[in-house]
């Protein structure tokens, strides 16, 4: 994973740049401090991986919903009554790739960093990395191994390329040991990485 690592101070550096840019835009009257606060509140409460986790959990307990999610993803999203729904160009055309015992799905964006913001939030640094984007398309099994995910050699790996036209996400397999779990309990197990295909959902306590 060294190839995808960044300097340790990247968060502080980028935060300083963001504050400087925000101050300049406010000074110029382009935005107000309330504008920034509103956007941050949306990503904290309305648009993020908590929405994707709810979709996955419902698919795990409702076979009919799982079929709908795979065949008509946006119709399934509409049923969830998320505050942001499709939320503009970042989520108007989302598509779910469902993991099975025979197939593991991986999401990339070879052109830039297209990502389903309404249900996964903002993409991580490594998702935008040119090396990850190129290598995951050419050698997905090896790249997944570098993430610590060793996919069984007998399982097919399908790579889906997100774009401005379709933004993909993964419905991971339900982990063992979750019989009787509520949707809320199941959603708490789902991670953004599992919905990107670089991880699996681990059983409780693992």
Keywords:
206 residues, 4 strands, 43% helix, 11% strand, metal-binding
Question: Which SSEs are present, and which pair or pack?
Answer:
Layout: H1 10-27, H2 33-45, H3 49-61, H4 63-71, H5 73-79, E1 94-98, E2 103-108, H6 117-120, H7 125-128, H8 130-138, H9 140-146, E3 156-161, E4 167-171, H10 183-187
Parallel strand pairs: 1-4, 2-3
How would you describe this protein?
It is a single chain. Helix content is 43%, strand content 11%. The protein has a two-stranded parallel sheet with strand order 1-4. Strands 2-3 form a two-stranded parallel ribbon. It has 2 domains: 45 residues; 160 residues, Nitrile hydratase alpha /Thiocyanate hydrolase gamma (Nitrile Hydratase, Chain A, Alpha-Beta Complex). The longest helix has 18 residues. Helix 3 packs across helix 4, helix 4 crosses helix 5 and helix 8 packs across helix 9. The mean pLDDT is 88. It is mainly alpha-helical and 206 residues long. It is built from 10 helices and 4 strands; from the N terminus they run H-H-H-H-H-E-E-H-H-H-H-E-E-H.
In DSSP terms, counting alpha (H) and pi (I) runs of 4 or more, how many helices?
10
* Uncertain parts: none
Helix amount, in percent? 40-55%
Please state the structural category.
mainly alpha
Query: So what's the CATH class of the largest domain?
Result: Alpha Beta
Order of helices and strands: HHHHHEEHHHHEEH
Output mean pLDDT: 88
Specify the CATH homologous superfamily of the largest domain: Nitrile hydratase alpha /Thiocyanate hydrolase gamma
**Which term fits the overall shape?**
globular
CATH architecture classification of the largest domain: Alpha-Beta Complex
Distance between the termini: 22 Å
CATH topology grouping of the largest domain: Nitrile Hydratase, Chain A
Give the beta-strand count: 4
Strand order, main sheet: write it out.
Answer: 1-4
Query: How large is the share of residues in beta strands?
Result: 5-15%
Can you summarize the main beta sheet? 2 strands, parallel
**Alpha carbon gyration radius:** 18 Å
Q: Please, how many domains?
A: 2
